[in-house]
Specification:
The chain is an alpha+beta fold. Helices cover 40% and strands 17% of the residues. The longest helix is centred in the first third of the chain and has 18 residues.
C-alpha cells in the first residue's frame, strides 16, 4: 500500500515537470493539458486570495463531452439548439450526474504553435512552421498553453467571473487535436465546468 501511494505521489508531482516539455502532436495527452489548466486556474485563485477549486468527476465528464463535441464540429459554442439532453451547460452537467444549484462554463479554442497573437506564419520546404525570416516556430508546452488560456479567460469579464466566482468544484477537459488546413498547426478545444 505504501509503495502504491509512493507511485501515485510520484506521478502527481511529476505532472508539472512533464508539462514543461513542448507538446508533441503525435503524443498529445489531453489529460495532461487539463491537469495543467487545473493547476494554472487554482494558482490564479490563490493569488486572488480565493480558495482553490476541487476537482469533480461529473463536471469533468460534462466538460470532456463538450470539448469533444466542439472539436468534432469545429465550432466554439455553449449551447446546441434542439438537443434536449446535452444542449446547455446545465443540461450536460446534470446528464453526467452533477447536481448543483449554480453552474458555469468557460470554453476556448487555441492552437499548439507558439505564434504571437495576430502574427502570420509560413511553411518552409520541409513542412515546418516558421516566422517570416525562416526561424522555426516551436510548439507550446502544456504549461505554456494552460497559462495562456487561463490568462485569456481572466482578461474576459464573463470568463473571469467564473474563474473567480463563488464556485466550489470544477471539471476541465481538452479535446483531441484538430489539424488545421495550413501546415503543422493544430487546434484544441478546452472546457471548464463549474459547480456549487
Amino acid at each position: 500500500m505504501i509503495r502504491g501511494l509512493g507511485i501515485a505521489a510520484l506521478l502527481l508531482f511529476s505532472l508539472p515537470l512533464l508539462g514543461q516539455e513542448a507538446i508533441v502532436p503525435q503524443k498529445f495527452q489531453a489529460e495532461l493539458l487539463a491537469q495543467a489548466i487545473f493547476e494554472a486556474t487554482n494558482q490564479l485563485r490563490l493569488r486572488e486570495g480565493l480558495e482553490a477549486f476541487k476537482a469533480n468527476e461529473a463536471l469533468q465528464n460534462a466538460a470532456r463531452y463538450q470539448a469533444e463535441r466542439m472539436a468534432k464540429r469545429r465550432r466554439l459554442q455553449h449551447k446546441w439548439p434542439g438537443d434536449k439532453k446535452y444542449g446547455s451547460p446545465r443540461q450536460r452537467i446534470q446528464a453526467f450526474e452533477g447536481n448543483y444549484n449554480r453552474t458555469g462554463e468557460n470554453i476556448a479554442q487555441d492552437y499548439l504553435l507558439d505564434i504571437p497573437s495576430g502574427k502570420a506564419y509560413f511553411i518552409n520546404s520541409k513542412g515546418q512552421a516558421t516566422q517570416q525570416g525562416g526561424t522555426p516556430i516551436p510548439y507550446r508546452s502544456y504549461q505554456q498553453l494552460a497559462q495562456k488560456v487561463v490568462k485569456d479567460w481572466y482578461l474576459s469579464p464573463g470568463h473571469r467571473a467564473n474563474l473567480l466566482g463563488d464556485f466550489e468544484f470544477i471539471g476541465i477537459a481538452a479535446s483531441f487535436l484538430v489539424p488545421e488546413k495550413k501546415g503543422p498547426n493544430f487546434d484544441v478545444y478546452l472546457v471548464q465546468n463549474f459547480g456549487k
